[in-house]
Every structure is written in C-alpha cells, then in structure tokens.
Amino acid sequence: MLSSLWEQTINLTLFVILLRMMPPILLGALGGLMTDRAGVINIGIEGLMLVSAFTSIAAGSATGSWIIGIAAGVLAAMVVSYAMAFFSLKMNVDIIVTGFAVNIFGAGITVLMMSILYDSHGNYVPEHPVSIPNIVIPFLDQIPFIGKLLSGHNLMVWISILAVVFCYFLLYHTPYGTHLRATGEEPSAARSLGISVVRIQYSALVWSGFFAGLAGSYLSMGMTSMFVRDMTAGTGFLALAVVIFGNRNPFGILAGSAVFALATAMTMIIETTPGNVIPSQFIKMVPYIVTIVALVVYAIRKHRKTLFT
Amino acid sequence: MNQRSAVYLDLLGILLAIVAALVIGILVIFLVSDEPVAALQALLIEPFTTLFSFGSILNRMIPLVFTGLAIVVVFQSGVFSMGAEGQLYIGALTGALAAVYLPEMSPWVHIPLVILAALIGGALYGFLPGLLKAYFKADEIVSTLMFNFIATLFVSYLLNYVFKAPDSGGFARLPFIQESARLGPIFDGFPTHAGFLLALLAALAVYLLLYKTKTGYELRTVGKNPLFAEYGGIKPKKVLILSIVISGALAGLGGTVEVIGLHGTLKDNFSAGLGFDGIIVSLLARNHPIAVLLSAFFYAYLQVGGQIMQANSDVPRDLAIIIQALLVIFVSSQAIFAYLKQRKLMSSRGGERVAK
Question: The pTM is what?
C-alpha cells in the first residue's frame, strides 16, 4: 500500500489531487482571515459557500457562461454577507450567532430553491453543464514532469493563489489594510484615531462573502459539475481552522490549506488502494488534531507573558 | 423599570420575532406553492391532529432539550462552546457500550449505569477543550468545532472496525442494546419514550443548579462580568472548566437517550447536527433552562410540520429550516429589544428621554 502511495507521489498524481482540493479551503480561509483580522470572526463561511455554489451553477447553466456563473455566485454571497454585517453591526446580534444563522440559512435556501427550480431535493445536475476551464499551458504541457506540475490545473487554482498575494498586499501594504488590522487589534484605539470601525468591519464581512463566493462557485462548477445539498460538508469550518493554523497570515494560510488538502488527497488515494490497512478516519482526523495543537501553540505565544501566573 | 416588566418586554419581543419569522415563511409559501393552503395546514396544524405526529414532536424534542441545556450552561457562563455535537457522540458511545456489553441485570440498575456512562463520557470530552481554554487560552470556538470532527470520526472508526455488528452491512452500527437498557414508551400505545421524563428532569436540575446553588451563582457571575467575579473571589478557571464539563455531560446524556430510547443501537452519523440545533434552541430560550422546554418543543414542531408539509404538498421541508434561521436572527436582534425598552422607559416617564 505504501508503495502505491509512493508511486502516486512520484508521478505527481497526489500533487494534482492536492491542487484540486485546495481552492475551496484556501479561498474560504482567506475570507475568514479578512474578518478575523477585523475582529468580526465569521463562522458563516460554510453557509456563504453553499449559497454561492448553488447560485453560480444555476446562473451558469442558465446562461451557458461560467463567467456569469461565478459573478452571480460571488454577488449572492456578498449580499448575504452584507446582511450578516447589518444584523451583527446594526442590530447588535452576536457575530457568532449571526454566522451560525447564515449556515442554517444557506443549507435551507439552497435546497428550497433547488426543489422549486429543478424539482429535486438531493442534487442538481444541469443538462448542459458549464465549468470553469482548466488552464493548459501550450508547449509546457509537452514536457514530462514540468507539464504535469504546472499545466492543466483549473483556473480557480491560480485565482486562489493570486488571491493570497492580493490579501497580503491589501493587509500589509495599503492604508485600508492597516486600518483593518488596527480595528481587529484594538477597536477603541482605532476609533480614537478616527478610523470608522463599523465601516471597516462591514467591508471585512463583505470581503469574506467575496472569497467564500469564489470558493462556492468552484465547488459546483470546477471540482464537480453539479450541486449537491450540503456539498460544503464542513469546508467552511475547516477554513476557520486553517486561519488559526496559518497563524492569521495569508502565506501561512496557503501552507495550511496545502496541508489540509494533502490530508484529503491522501485519504482519497488510500481509500481507493487495494489492501488498505489504515482506517481512513484516522487520516481525516490528522488536520483537526494538528489545528488544535496549532491553536494551543498560537495561544501560548500570544499570551506568553500572562500565562502561568 | 422593574424586573418584572423587563421580562414581559422580553417575552413580547420574542413573540414578535416568532411572528415575523412565521409571516415571512408564510409569504414564501404563498410565493412558491400552487397549493399554499394545503401546505400551511400541513406545516402548522397537522402535527397536532394525530397521536402519532404529536408523539413524534415530543420524541424529536428530547435530544434538543438535552443539547439546548448543554448550551445554556456554557453560554450563561460566558463560554462559547460549539462542542455539544462531539460531546453528544462520545456520550452516546460510552452509554451505548454500557447498554450493549454490560452483563445481564435488572433495568433498575442497568439504565442508571448507562446514564452514568453517558454523563462521564460527555463530561470528559467537554473537559478537554475546557482545559485547553483555561490553561492555554486556546479559543474554545475553534477548538470545540475541531473536537466535533474528531469525535464523529473516532466513533465512525470504532463502529466500522472495532464494535461493528456482524449483520449491519454497509451502514455500520453497534449490536442492538439489551432489553434491560431500553427506555420504553411513557405509556402503552403512545409513541413518546421515557427519555421525555429524563429531559424534563434535566431541565429542572439545570434550573436548580444555575439559580439555586452557589456554583450556579458563580457560573452566572463569571458569564456576566468575569472581572467582577474574579474580584469577588471566584476562580474563573474552575468555573470555565466546570461549565463545559456539565455541558458535555448533558449533551452526552442526550446522545445516549437517543440510543436507548429511539434507535436501540448506535449508528454511524446518527446525530446530523443535534448539537448545533441545541444552540438554536438555547438562543430561542434566551439561555433559560425552563424556557428550553418550550423552545425545543417549538423547534421540534416546526421540524415535524416541515416533514408533513413535504409529504402532503409541493413545498419542501427546507422552508422550515429557513424559518429557523430567521428566528435565530430576529430573536437575537438586541437592537429591537433595546428599542422596546427605551420606548417603555420613555412612556413611563412622560415621554422625556432618559439617559441610559
């Protein structure tokens, strides 16, 4: 069994599956990062993703254009996240409760719409599916190793990696990013410096809708060509874990998403390998355990001075 | 404003929130359905029309009371644990193992032992994130979410590889529990099982604990104002761990009651979010243990109504889920309550604005 895993590592199958699995986790985590750094942690990523996954495949297959699909999905997730912001910042609903409600809402509204529009409760497979294209790089894809390494990946893989760079610049090299981080660190201090804390937090939540929207459209139009009820299956929560795991930093989050995607990819390979002896549950467990360890390490580093006193 | 009228205003606000969520739900039904009257009747009235459907509301309500109470205890103590789902699985596991594998004995001994096993299992699983929070300040929201995944996977592993009943095929489960561990119906011919009585007892116990004991006072004080509590000599670490341990025990018992009352065995992925439903139930009840009984009943009523509606009309049961999401948001919209209170204050003082 190990030899088969080794083989698939060498011929890059593992790497290819890893890249396929990574965008939803990575984009979701970037959405979580923006809110986390602004001090309004959004646990509703899961619900936002579902809303976008359904909207994008519905709009995409109706118009025949994956671009319109993505745009519709992202827009829908941003509208819902704006509503989140309204309820938590204006109506004083606790942000955790708001996120929680969005998760329930996302699960409910998508299935409701699916049964109204397509008369199905379980899944929706469009007659003429549209998908986000794979990027085949000419000439490069002919080269044995490098071809498989770089060519043929889904467009969203590249977008998600670009999004990491984008978030890094936004957070660390723009005045907006500085204000956002200040708001998250110490809202009262930010307010006394004239930063509009509520506006920053509004925008952070809408950013999380944007990234969760991208993640959702990839779920239904990239990774698969269908919508399945509750198809996020915990990805949104995983994304929150990755934020912690990646030390609340865009590049850390890239590494964290890769680790989580690796665990998923290995589970898939090991489950399909004949003569498998390792229960898949244990491999699936690893990222969660690592996250708890990371959480503890992060907390110890942050509170080193006040801890153990 | 005195305390009594504050409570009435709160109740008024909750009623308004429920009405608003239902009205939106009804509007949606009229919008999407060709037979809105039949759908409404199925959703709102039919759950009460047969003994069977009323009994299944009560059956649905039982685990929700337990997980709701579990959340009440942590939220009142200012701990944002999302871990009821995982604690429910571990409690269901330890309870189910006791129900299946203990040697034959009288139900009067066996059932209490099973309950004890469930309480211990759930409590221990609550203890872990409590410890991490108390001594390492590891954020309990994320850690409990992770512990949920680990518990579900761990139980799934044990069911598939270690304790799998030989005749269970593709849907892994434990062997069936012994008759002496089974909770029968409350009375003959009624579908609700005796776990209902346990749920009532648990609500009473949590009420007494929170409002009539010193420990409960400490929990609530830490929840309201941790600095004041510490200044007053309450140990916040002890309170934090205690609250999440009690919460875990309650959730664990909820899991086991499902096993010995409803399913008769422990199945893979049997819960499907009962622990998260408990958060809704607790929020609707404004984190009050007795009110949890009402909100769990209402929640179960919506679920059963949703199912009947799906069977008897063209509206899917997911509409009920949307009503639940709206309820959570509306009931928690403190701005509305603040507004109501402000108005009350203003009118009681002849309309002049009052500070505060």
Answer: 0.86
